[in-house]
Structure formats: structure tokens, C-alpha cells
Amino acid sequence: MHTRLKISWKYKLGLLLALVSCSPDPVVDYGMGEYYVEISTALDDHAFLLDNGQTVYDSNGTANRTFDSGDRVYLSFSYGETLSDPITVHGAIKIFSDTLKLTQEDKLLQQKNDPVRFESAWTGSHYLNLKFYMEFYSETHKIALLIDEDHVKDSEVHLYFTHDKNNDAAGYWVSLYASYDLSQVLGEPDGDRMLFVHCNTTGSGNTIYTVKY
């Protein structure tokens, strides 16, 4: 039910270099004009679908990365003179992605759930995006987003983000993004359902974050 999350030094370095923002859709100006950072879905190596429904094209190959269709990508880019012009990519890195998983209430309560340092949660299209920090040393961690299968149709939906550090020793805090496809379980978003995201946090224990879907 959990998905393994292996962190390597190379992956950590890539995150430190590319994940320059903690909130969705910021606009940054470094003296070279505005550029944007967003979580997007790769359509191929040179086309990305933004969560607002816009498709952007990196026709000059400035991303210089290989992505599979469906990969969730943290993308920083500049527009051309018009929105239809090819974009210039300043950074692109694949982030962790998975789907919302169904489980039974008794199994939900049995899940191992080590704390994380949680920062933010937001929805984009049919995805729930999370930013958090976890303490990593050497072992493979496992994370999941779960829902009680008996409450899928509720107007107020409770989701549970769980983390199993696999008895990893104390190490260093790693900044991570995770993006979960909700549509296979909850259907397409209408904008009027309230999601309550439960997370075990280092500072406050079980904390609930609310977003609309």
C-alpha cells in the first residue's frame, strides 16, 4: 500500500538546485524577466501540461531532460513574447507521484506513521500536491495517501498522509514534493468538496490541512 521513496545524494542535490519555491505558481524576477515555477505533467520531453489546463512547449529542448508521459515535473520557466510561444525552461525535475489508495478503517489505524515536517498542501487540476521535509539517513522510506473506502462519497473527505521511515537513523532533513492523483478514487474535481488532509507532524502531532477539490 505504501510506495517506497529512495533518496540518493544525487537526487537530494537535484532537489536542492531545482526546488526553489515552497508555494504553487509564484512569479520570480531575477533581472532577466519574469519566470514561473509550477508542478506540471509531462506529455513528452518537450511538452508540459500545467495544472491550469495550459500546455506549454519547450521546443528548443532547454529542459535537457528525459521524462515519461505522465511524470509530475517541478518546472521553472519563462514565457515567450506571447503565451503561445515556446517557453524557456530554467529547471525541470521529476517529483514523486502516486495515486490515492483505498483502505479499510481498521487497516488505516494500523498504519505506521512517523512524523514529517509539513509545510503546505494544495490542489491543482485532479492532483493533491504536498511539500514536506523528512529526516533521512540511509534507509528507504515509504509514503502513502490513504482514504477509508467507506467514505469516498462524503462531501467532506478525510485523507491520511502516512510515512514509514523504515527505522532509519537520525540524519538530515530533506525537502520533498509529492503529487497524488485523486481522480481515480474521487473523480474529477468540482471545486466544492472539502478535503481534510491528516498528517503526523514533528511540531504538532496529528495536524489537519484543508483544501478544496
In words, what does this structure look like?
- By secondary structure, the protein is mainly beta.
- Helices cover 9% and strands 50% of the residues.
- It has three helices and 16 strands.
- The model is unreliable at 8-25 and 28-32 (pLDDT under 50).
Task: Specify the number of helices.
Answer: 3
The outline comes out as: globular
Largest sheet: 6 strands, mixed
Unreliable stretches = 8-25, 28-32
Query: How much of the residues is beta strand, in percent?
Result: over 45%
Tell me the Rg in angstroms: 18 Å
Oligomer: single chain
Entry keywords:
213 residues; mainly beta; 6-stranded mixed beta sheet
Task: Describe what is shown at a glance.
The chain is mainly beta. The chain contains 3 helices and 16 strands. The protein is 9% helix and 50% strand.
What's the arrangement of secondary structure elements?
Layout: E1 3-5, H1 9-18, E2 27-29, E3 34-44, E4 47-50, E5 55-57, E6 72-78, E7 88-94, E8 96-99, E9 101-103, H2 105-109, E10 117-124, E11 127-136, E12 141-148, E13 156-164, E14 172-181, H3 183-186, E15 194-201, E16 205-212
Parallel strand pairs: 8-14, 9-12, 13-15
Antiparallel strand pairs: 1-12, 2-3, 3-4, 3-6, 4-5, 6-7, 10-11, 11-14, 12-13, 15-16
